[in-house]
What we know:
By secondary structure, the protein is α+β, with helices and mostly antiparallel strands. It is built from 3 helices and 8 strands; from the N terminus they run H-H-E-E-E-E-E-H-E-E-E. The strands form 2 sheets. It has a 5-stranded antiparallel beta sheet with strand order 4-3-6-7-8, with helices on one face. The chain has a 3-stranded antiparallel beta sheet with strand order 1-2-5, with no helix packed on it.
Amino acid sequence: MQPLKVIIENWQKVPWFTTWVPQIVGLIALGVSLYALDVTRKQFMLSTRPYIQAMNFWDQNENKQVNENFIFSLGNAPAKISKMDVKLYYKDQIVDKTLYNLVRFPATGSTWAYAFPQKEFDKLLNASRGDEANFFRSVRIEYTGINGGKVYFSELVQNFNGFAWQNVSEEAN
């Protein structure tokens, strides 16, 4: 019991704020640091993931849209496309093509395209004359970063208005 009595008798008389304020400031600094670490991690994930976009193909030489083609662009980081499903459909007639395990690298101005077979495209286009409201095409791309990780997707559905493709819906994560 004697050592405890010595400690209590020699306890320093200091104001409470000289002890507690530095500890509170330290805890606040720790909280701010943890929050900044979380924000940095989220921004890093967003800035290093690939982005893939599907678009209409425009022939600059003839200054017109090429209706049977999709053009794709990749930005930010290399991507491994696990599945790319491209469909062209009019009512119950469907032209469907699925491609697997493609790897693409971003480069300034780099794009790639997919073209529906001309014969099949013309067949559906002719069948839909006068009823273009039911003539659609879609593409869904499921992809990851080159080293795997989270699976992202990009999906585009378009309707033919008689002259060009118009976006009906576009989704991505």
